[in-house]
Amino acid sequence: MVKSSNISRINALDAYFPKKQETAVSAEIDFKLVRDSKLNQLATWPNKINEFQKKIKNFQIHNDYLKPGIVCHSGNTSIVRVEPFKWWVLDDYSGNFKFDQENFVMNLDLSHSFVQIKMSGIFSNRILAHHVPIDLREAQFPVDKLITTSMHHVSIKLWRKQNYWQIFLPRSYSESLWRLLSETAEQYGLKQR
Amino acid sequence: MKSARINNVLHPQETKDDIIHFYWNKKKYFAKKGDSIAAGLLANNLNIIGRSFKYHRPRGVMSAGVEEAGALVTIGFGARTEPNIRASTAELTDGLHIYSQNAWPSVKFDFGSILNFLGRFFAAGFYYKTFMGIPPFEWGRGTRIWMFFERFIRKAAGLGKSSRLPDPDYYEHLHTHTDILVIGSGPSGLQAAISAAKTGKDVLIVEQDYIVGGSYLNQQNKKELEEQEELLKNLGVTILTRTTAFGLYDNTTVGLVEIIPLEGQKDLLKKPKQRFNICRATNVILATGAIERVYAFINNDLPGIMSVNSARAYLNRYGILISKNIVISTNNDSAYETALELKNAGAKVTILEIREQIGDKLLRQISGSGINLFLGSGVAKAEKGFNNSSINKIKIVEMTDDGWRYAGTLFCDCLLISAGWSPVIHLASHQNFPINWDEEKACFISFGDEKSVFLVGSAAGIWQQKQCINSAKELFKYKSKQKYKHSLIKGGWETPIAPLYEIRLASIKGKAFVDPQNDVTTSDIRLAHQEGFISVEHMKRYTTLGMATDQGKIGNIIGLALMADALNCSISQVGVTRFRPPYTSISLGALAGRNRQSHFKLIRRTPFNNFSLKNNAVMINTGLWQRPWYYPEQSETLDSSYRREATITRKSIGICDVSSLGKIMIQGPDTTEFINRIYTNQFNSLPVGKARYGIMLRDDGFVFDDGTTWRLADHCYLMTTTTNNAASVMTKLEELLQLRWSNLNVQITSVTDQWGGCAIAGPNSRNLLSKIIDNPVEIAEESLPFMGVKQISIQTVICNIARISFSGELSYEIYIPSDYAQSVMELIWSRAQEFESCLYGLEALGTMRIEKGHVTSAEIDGRVTIEDIGLGGMASKKKDFVGGILKNRKALNHSDRPQLVGIFPKNKNKSFKVGALLNEAGLSKGHPIGWVTSVTFSPALGHWIALGFIEGGLNSVKDKNIVLSDKLRSNFLDVEIVSPHMFDPEGTRLYG
Fold it and tell me: What's the pTM?
């Protein structure tokens, strides 16, 4: 959420994406920047997992949230297990998933740690395949799966959504990785702005 | 040899657009679209393509495939020069420039060919023997003579020369996943792909040629190929042409290189030239075909001699009749169909059949065709014409009970050889799958791994096309690999092959080539045997057989057979060298992909990067991070800039980007205990809202890293690390938590990218901050004392602030959420204009920390103990910590260990550099007693200063004259050893 003061939130890739995002989506390849994203991490421990589960139960989320890399939804908020005892809560603008009980769960705001890009178009799988070694075929990587992989030896996260990929790039690497990605996409019709 | 296009007018379906032009040694010629370079050259009757590696013998086209050992050319020019391209497989594109190789002044008349007459001096092992030193003058001193002759040898020998200019094209990587990968698109490959696709699997078929078809393309009737292609299309099989599977690796991972056809300037700018495709398949089917062999006889390398199958390819695929007077020498059934086709195309054809009888079917096939057949005959020598370098006649021999007997001369201008077939088992060999010599078929055969890699068709030693196709069908019928393997034991010839590797008559002299690319002769193999290099691996290295671009695809078997003969054993007993990737040569560019130039090493940018650049920062790469080095004003140099920055900071305010420091959030009920075990000093007494400087050791007791750790809440700490060691510290903490202390409820997360860090230092720093933060009371001395930590808000943005100092001044470090960092920094900088202020970079940061005697990775270089850097008092005696036991080793506690000191030049006008050594005066030779780690000009002290280490520390050299010596730069000066705390040792400035 952008502050009302002189202080504005500036995404690391702001310079590469127009503020007013074009609505027309290229059928071949299209990128959009996710601005003002919200990302909170919940962390627990093996001996506290039961208490954690009890708390999460209140949100009526599908039990798949316990499986690694399966994104589950509660309203507009999504939750996914990213490490054995760490979950990411995405877009929780109301702060529902922020718990105070430090003895069984720890909150950590990571909203500024990653730059998120949405990639769509018929060549999006192909462009990703130039950079990540994982199997992107839908049977292996269905909608709402999120995995950690590497691009040029840098850890990134990939989330398959209904019609596009959401890519999480570490903020400090994001400009270098974006240049790499967009140069690859040029051969598939991306016009550099 | 006179080769020409059979019908040089356009076919009805061809247009003028199908005519392309190319340049051969700068002269313009015409060809047809779809031609290979070799086809284009042969269509224009250009038969001498290059000169050989060592003897500069004329070489022509020997094949129509990847085994080509003679027709190597250079294509392109300038930065796009590509040497050693196989003319037989490279696609001829419109306007292509092609050059011959290893010849001067021209390929037809080459001065280097004089080496052919000196051949007896250049036998195998020539370099090893000659350059050991000329006996007896240079026993054991051989390198000098090599150094002299090397330039001449390198000029005379070799293949093409690559450009010295940077490659202007780009390359890329691709990762492909599929259920079934079929390598090769000949009859068995296409059938395997079709059968696989019918089972509902994802199928990818790769073909090294620029069109699909394999041996189908060499046949006159292409109906079956068209039907198979249509079927593949309907079944949704992915087809990649111009793609070579160059290596088979663990877990059915296959290295593919795809050549991208580029048309015009637009493509050059956008498309990669080659793509390195890493394919991970569940199953791999090798339908890689087989390569037709030749045999050794005198002058078997002359232009005009090639394999039978290649003549068929040029005839049926490209419409080129290789010659009108052809002799075919064979020992198997495969040559007969080609003989008939050549005859029907208008050539006079004679067959010299090694076997003394052939099957009825073959006899019926050629009877009445006008083909002359000589049974039990072969070739002993080929000879060139008087004013021609190509073949003109051959000496033929007949088989007798004792061997061979000269039988006369036969005139011809083309000799085609078929001495059997070698299945392409290279990829199977890469994985060390069993490879066995099949005596009946006279070739090596592999069956893959019996789990996920299978061979079909002629790659499995099946010669008849129908049986090849069946082998692919059967693969999907049998569940048991054993049954499948059994079903493959079919597919020989009607009349068994008569193995033949060499024809030699004592009365006929000359060079008979085993490996024409490396000029390895039959004599070289025998010499290797004579000199004891009898293992195939030794023979290969001694003679260079099987090296260079063709990797012995033609010559290997002949070499093995000759060695077997010399050893009086069978080929299976001699064995075969293990093939290694790549199957065909691939460019380094493809392996590098996009990881070059600006993408070679990714850059990490801090959230203040744009702000720094806008404010004229000169950036420097420190590890992966790009950081501001200094901020020059007008014509300032680095020196004048950093001196100004340090001066203004000590006088008023300096602002510095410190975002690259590692930041690790440590959370959980057991965090205090965890941190207390990590650091040498006590952390369990640190209250919330306070920071503490800590040292951590490696397990071996040496210093690992240092930094401040802030207690933000009861169970929440923010640890900062050095920029260099951020990842190592994170890894170490994870290791400790996961392996040693898994009972601790602690979680750690890197938050380096979450926060932009900014240091505001100098006597006016508090005054500046008071103008910026929402509630200035929060940073008053009593609210935020030295080493105090708290959350503040700047225009409602929540930031963490700590009153800590690296510069020795009253100083604050503010951590701002990264997306707000630039805006907050702009606000800070705009308000800083009300004071005398500056932005300072890494150089000024270094200056101020050296003045204060603060260590960084220049001092903590992995060899120092906590005592060495003067912080022994921070090692608690009341608790255990990592490295605490081994730090007490005797050797780490000697009083004469090098210890951290400050260094002043006695002559204050003198300067010196890092790396200089310290010695006692008069003892500058031998091992030094100290060294310099960090140097700067100190604006505060007005002269150059340094940090360094000296044996025994300050006290041990009190009364000694110490000399600094920098022998590399010839700088020697007397220095004074002082305390490392060279400026404000009492630390009064920390309090403003």
Answer: 0.92
